[in-house]
Amino acid sequence: MPPPTTIKVALAERSYPIVIGSELLGRAFDWSPYFGDSLGDSTCLVVTNTTVAPLWLDGLKTTLRDRRAASIALPDGEAHKSLATAATVIDKLADLHAGRDATVIALGGGVVGDIAGFAAACYMRGVGFIQVPTTLLAQVDSSVGGKTGVNHPQGKNLIGAFHQPKVVLIDTATLQTLPEREFCAGLAEVIKHAAIADIGFFGWLESNMAGLRKRDPGLLAHAIRRSCEIKASVVAADEREQGRRALLNFGHTFAHAIENSLGYGEWLHGEAVAAGMVMAARLSDIGGDAVERLSVLIDSAGLPIEPPRIGAGKLRAAMDLDKKAQAGKLRFVLLHELGRAFVTGDYDASRLAEVLTRAA
Amino acid sequence: MPPPTTIKVALAERSYPIVIGSELLGRAFDWSPYFGDSLGDSTCLVVTNTTVAPLWLDGLKTTLRDRRAASIALPDGEAHKSLATAATVIDKLADLHAGRDATVIALGGGVVGDIAGFAAACYMRGVGFIQVPTTLLAQVDSSVGGKTGVNHPQGKNLIGAFHQPKVVLIDTATLQTLPEREFCAGLAEVIKHAAIADIGFFGWLESNMAGLRKRDPGLLAHAIRRSCEIKASVVAADEREQGRRALLNFGHTFAHAIENSLGYGEWLHGEAVAAGMVMAARLSDIGGDAVERLSVLIDSAGLPIEPPRIGAGKLRAAMDLDKKAQAGKLRFVLLHELGRAFVTGDYDASRLAEVLTRAA
Domain range spanning residue B345? Predict the structure, then answer.
């Protein structure tokens, strides 16, 4: 078992480490630098869900040694990512008489992290927050960058806050219990990070996808680490998403259209992003075998490379809604080449029409 | 009518101006630097309450000229400063399909500003926010500094965010319609600012209290301006209340105990702060006529200089609760002398007992 590695997300006084290793849960861990107290007596609340709790809550509590921690298990699923659920976490903190030195630990996937992080951001205008992501998607994407939030009937993540964690602890062992479809969906974001920023990593993924699919701990640790490094460097350059951070939306304009058209939950987000990346690559004016390589890698990750057959008109309508929400401008992340992306509102409309007709 | 004056709250990229004048509402105002768009077509939502709307909503809309603005009138009163009310503001923004370039304008007192600011902080992780405070308390205190939030059954302002406005527009004309008791409560915070930071301003208040009580526009403009300057300089040095900002809590440890013991709403916050400042001055180990001068000034502002007769034991118990919430340390803001305050956890316990017995 290789020792854990640590990378740093550089955000001035909000900088924090991401610790990546195998079998970290179930053993003591030195959390002391990340709590708001010196005596170990501040309130600690673990927020998890009913699926993850039986698997990993005891293991997390072992890492805390003799520090007492309360816990709350939320119902599982995106349907519960609501202001009402976040309010139950806040109620729990209030019931515990948590002070400003309190810490909220999110143990679970992206939904748990988003809700717990938003509650931590709002309680007393911000208390400590720690992420222990247990899905691949959360480990390589949602636990890094400080975005927290909940859904509103009118839109995903419409209510939220930027709230950086004090530390992210990633135990690759948690991936062994992850359902196959969810695991593959997480790989979509790994591929995305390679495609926008690192052709070397892209090549490494081509060589090692079979081993990753078998969830080899060493390969997982490398893929997660490189993904987090890429996301961390983009976030460090643009914490509040004014510009460069939009690169992380590669494939997402199409993915949102797919998800909106199908209804959320029909395809997993990662699946929609997978097909969306192929569409974005097709829209990019690049020659060579880039589109082909991307498609092959995505396919080998067990992910779709074509949009669902719902009709170009429906996708187009969904994109127009998105456009309206963004003050009239539809923006895409396109590729100069594999490993080098850019954001643009200037795209070839007839090429877009072509890309969409694949969904007809 | 003197021309409006502008002071600046210096918070790096979150810096913003406070514009103070008389009869600004009802006339065109150049808001363009403070909206998130250039075309004047972004969503603008005015959040006000049912008391203020009939008085000032039309006047505010006149300042906006031909920019279209939606509005929502919340029920009046602290009892409605809840997450549920904030959610109605968020619902309204969602119904309007407001984008990231949207602006929320708070028109009203501290409650309206706190709710509207929190909704603006959370909607899409933060949209534009403008404060148009219409009470003296909001003009000299709550509209400056970026604290937003709502109450929880377990505590005041337990849910919130730091979210700085783009601009604060203060029209002293709005004070002409303010009930006497609320007006005087606002004077408590003006006196507080003088007592902690500016003996010259304290003397000016002693000389001009009679005119202020008559709501002379010129005197009001000066008092508001100097108050905002003092608060702005403290906030600029410590935006997130790690240290120096605590000076603004002069009188507040006692005030919270009074409010908690009486039940919130019995005394206005400013009234509790008034009596609390005299108590804090008594607890300060200062000679001369400082306590006397402070008491006389507070009395001349139509405010109480003694706590309600609820018994020292009850006040003490309320303070002990506060102490627990603050991780075991009761902290006071005390005076070196009038105009110079400091924060300390090191106070004379027998002197505190004496101060509290006045409430017996």
Answer: 195-357
